[in-house]
Design brief:
The chain is mostly helical and 658 residues long. The protein contains 39 helices and no strands.
Length: 658
Amino acid sequence: MKTLPALLNLGLALWVAGCASAPPPRFATPPPREPHPKEAALLATLQSPDASLKDKADACRELARVGSTRAVPVLTALLTDTQLGHMALYALEPLPGEEANQALRQALSQAKGRALVGVITSLGVRRDADAVPLLQPFLSASDPDIRQAAALALGNIGTLPAVGALQSALVRADAHGRASLVKGLLRAAERRSSDGDRRTALNIYEQLRARADLPPPLLAAAWRGAILVRGSREVAVLQQAIESPELSVVHAGLRAAMEMPDPAVTRALADVLPRLQPERQLLVLETLAVRRDAQALPVLLRATNSLDRAVQLTAFRALGELGDPRAAGPLTSWIMDSDPERRELARAALASLPGAGVDRLILGMLDRSDPATQLAGLDLVARRRLAAALPRLLRLATAEEPAVRQAALKQVGELGAVHHWNALLDLIRKLSSPEDLATARDALVNLAERIGAGGPQTEAVLTTLHGASPAQATVLYHLLAQLGGTKPLQVTAAAARTGSPEQQTAAFQALLQWRTPDVADELLWFAEQAGDPRRRQDALRRYLQWASDPELPEDRRLAMCRQAHRIVQDTAGQKQLLAALSTIGQGEVIPLVRPLLDSPETREEACAAVVAVAERLRKRSENRALPEPVLQALDAVARMTSNAELAKRAQALRNPGT
């Protein structure tokens, strides 16, 4: 099934294919220009034997902008130049005055091949009516490019003699030459219509519509033109197009309908809809939506009750596209439908409708007592980002139904402002289930990021900690980890050391999640002194992650690695230490790495760290020799590693240039 954008694009593609390209703006004869101060110098460049080809091409470009009738003779002389002819034509085409027309007409007898195609095209762009009898013979040229250029140029000129020339040629044309002549006639019809001669335009379109030998794109373009010229007072042809067995004609009719905003077109589409097969109804429903005519609302609402599922679903999409707020009431009967797809489309359509009345309808759903309606309303609040619902959201955050509570809490985080921070914290004290508290935690983190939470919000969290249950405290410590700050860190670290067992667990987890590196000293304390071995291990692991953070200064990371080196014991910790050391480009790293070269469990990681450090040092000081301890370590790597590529890198660092 075509989507709305696809339908639009297809209709446009058909028209472009039918007409080769949209007619250029009417050029006629541009208004006279006063001689520009630069013009004489530009003409001198074109006539100079010493000027380069680029200089002459640049002069042509500038003359297209500032040239006057004085430039015509010079540019005309260049039209047959194999290197500059196209640039001369580029400059001549927009020049003001009849002189340019005369020059182009004269060039018709001199130019050949691509140059002739360019001259013909320029006469069409300038809409030179006097060129019509000169262009007509080219309609029977042996070169198909010349034939097409002549047909399109005559179409752009669009005078009655030009139309006659094209029609006469079409009578005699074979299949190969027919397409360009039809394209020319389509352009001419467009010209006649825009110039007010709708009768001639309609005659052209009708003649082309009646032909049985046109390819679908050209036939579709003729149908579209006939519909548009007739306008909304004669919609029978539009309906015929929509009922046509030829799909390209159907799309042409629908494209034309999109271009005619008159309500009569809406009525015509509504009248033809019941006569169509479901596949065709889909296209008409989409067209009604794109046209945005409020008169289409009853048609789309009836289609939501169609027995054909595809038609029904398309109607829901179309209601959202139409954007008429009067659809809100009928859509509410579908937003809790048992069919997931119908329900989703109905909610999406309702959420997209404009107007305060739609807001009030959704807010009213939150005031209902049944959880199903409340949940549907909460979903619509989320889709619509309806901040006016916040007072109701805070009330529903303590509702009996867990799903309602959690959906409301989530939306407070999504939609709330600074003044809702304390209200969310107050809700924490009223919640007990893990699911509710997890949702409240996420809502607070979301809100903190959105409002840029700072000191006042942090103080409010610290205040809420007093008297909080262990489960509630877990949420609050997690929140402090996201907010950061000196006092929150002190409070959290103290609780992790001396609080109740539940507080210690929650606070310690918060230290592991802390978002700023000022937590490093606290982590080191736990890595050294925590009574629980698992806690020591977790603290050291997180401490070494901070030591690997490239955002921290190297000196600080080196100092942290030295501290970790004192206490790391297990192989996993040693490998993590090596990973941190490998990010530091200082020779002082090597004494920390060397002992780990001797252990089979860490040898390869230590070798990789030595090479990484040496490469960093080499990159920073390409012209200086590596420190002796680094060179000795590289020798050891070359001997000890089982990785041939790593050994090769070590040797290259040890002996650069060899």
